[in-house]
């Protein structure tokens, strides 16, 4: 089975099976704070083509500021805090997988602001594959929000320390990816989701 057929089959099955849960989360988000259920943001996809990613909204509808979450970010809603902790805010990206903008496994898609900092040597390699819901860097379990909260300049910490490590892992994935490596990453992700951070 090809990677794309695998993505379509799993995304379609996931959306069908999880639809009651997705509807419940949507209702919770609407009751918890004013604003839309979904958060949509421009990200950079395969070959540098921009697309708008889908996530459950976890911040106040009028939230402003950096596209980074730093510590106990005051912009995050009560429902959003739980959805982020369990990573279930990412589930709507199954729609992006089904549409072909994303894959189940691939480098996490970044906003244009930070793609501009990709070194030329890594940019083409990282963007040669579809971005994914999860990837090996996700399994490194780096607690970005807390690390950024400890930094004197969170954005500089992200650009100079966290992002290069992510890119190196993403480039390694892009060069060696197979359906079997994707299955291993998905299995690891499911194990991590079964033990969400406190």
Helices and strands in order, then pairings?
Elements: H1 3-32, E1 38-44, E2 50-56, H2 78-86, H3 93-99, E3 103-105, H4 112-115, H5 120-126, E4 132-134, H6 136-139, H7 144-150, H8 154-176, H9 179-193
Parallel strand pairs: 3-4
Antiparallel strand pairs: 1-2
Helix pairs in contact: 1-3, 5-8, 7-8
Secondary-structure content class: mainly alpha
Radius of gyration: 16 Å
Order of helices and strands: HEEHHEHHEHHHH
Low-confidence runs of at least 5 consecutive residues? none
Quick one: overall form?
globular
Q: List how many beta strands DSSP finds.
A: 4
In which range does the helix fraction lie?
A: 40-55%
Distance between the termini: 37 Å
Mean pLDDT level: 91
Strand residue percentage:
5-15%
Question: Major sheet, described briefly?
Answer: 2 strands, antiparallel
The total of helices stands at 9
Strand order of the largest sheet: 1-2
How many domains comprise the coordinates? Answer: 1
Features:
198 residues; mainly alpha; two-stranded parallel sheet
3D structure, described in words:
This protein has one domain. Strand 1 and strand 2 form a beta hairpin. The mean pLDDT is 91. With 198 residues, it is mostly helical. It contains nine helices and four strands, in the order H-E-E-H-H-E-H-H-E-H-H-H-H. Helix 5 (120-126) crosses helix 8 and helix 7 (144-150) packs antiparallel against helix 8 (154-176). Strands 1-2 form a two-stranded antiparallel sheet. The termini are far apart.
């Amino acid at each position: 089975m090809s990677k794309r057929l695998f993505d379509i089959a799993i995304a379609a099955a996931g959306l069908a099976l999880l639809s009651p849960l997705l509807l419940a989360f949507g209702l919770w988000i609407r009751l918890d704070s004013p604003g839309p259920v979904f958060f949509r943001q421009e990200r950079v996809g395969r070959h540098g083509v921009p697309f708008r990613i889908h996530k459950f909204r976890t911040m106040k509808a009028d939230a402003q500021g950096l596209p980074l979450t730093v510590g106990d970010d005051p912009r995050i809603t009560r429902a959003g805090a739980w959805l982020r902790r369990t990573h279930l805010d990412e589930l709507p990206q199954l729609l992006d997988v089904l549409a072909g903008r994303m894959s189940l496994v691939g480098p996490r898609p970044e906003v244009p602001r930070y793609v501009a900092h990709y070194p030329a040597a890594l940019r083409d390699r990282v963007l040669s594959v579809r971005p994914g819901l999860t990837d090996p860097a996700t399994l490194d379990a780096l607690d970005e929000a807390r690390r950024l909260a400890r930094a004197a300049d969170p954005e500089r910490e992200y650009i100079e320390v966290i992002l290069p490590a992510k890119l190196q892992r993403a480039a390694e994935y892009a060069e060696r990816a197979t359906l079997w490596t994707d299955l291993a990453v998905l299995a690891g992700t499911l194990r991590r989701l079964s033990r969400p951070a406190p």
